[in-house]
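HUMAN: Please help interpret these tokens:
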Amino acid sequence: MNRKVKHRLLSLLLGIVIFTIPLSKATYSQVLSLENMFPLLSTISLTEKQQIQLEQLSQETVLKIKNVLTPPQQTQFFQGIEAGKDYRESLGPINISEVQKEQFRNIVGSVKTQVYRTLTLQQKLEIQRRLSSQGN
């Protein structure tokens, strides 16, 4: 897979993977399901090992987000997510510091890398195919 396609796949994965999580106030501290955290990945066949890895990544990511944001910011952020906004739209109206922005960039980069490493080449190609067909 060439570098340009790999970069596009990672960017597209990120857009669909983590920050389209529907949450209610009662579930902020609960573990998110694989289907909520990785909606497109749930449409491909994953091994049991991959499912466990992605579920663990889901849990870790929510905790990381919560550690970056203050409680009022968490409420605003997760309300945006619950309203169907992506993570950038949900962060937009929140006054976050440069340090918090950098921490979010690190979380996003880490998630991209970990999801990418979890998938086989065939799975990556299938996701790319599905994303391409959605764009048409």
Notes: The helical segments are 3-17, 34-37, 48-68, 71-82, 87-91, 98-118, 121-135. Residues 16-33 have pLDDT under 50 and may be disordered. The first helix runs from residue 3 to 17.
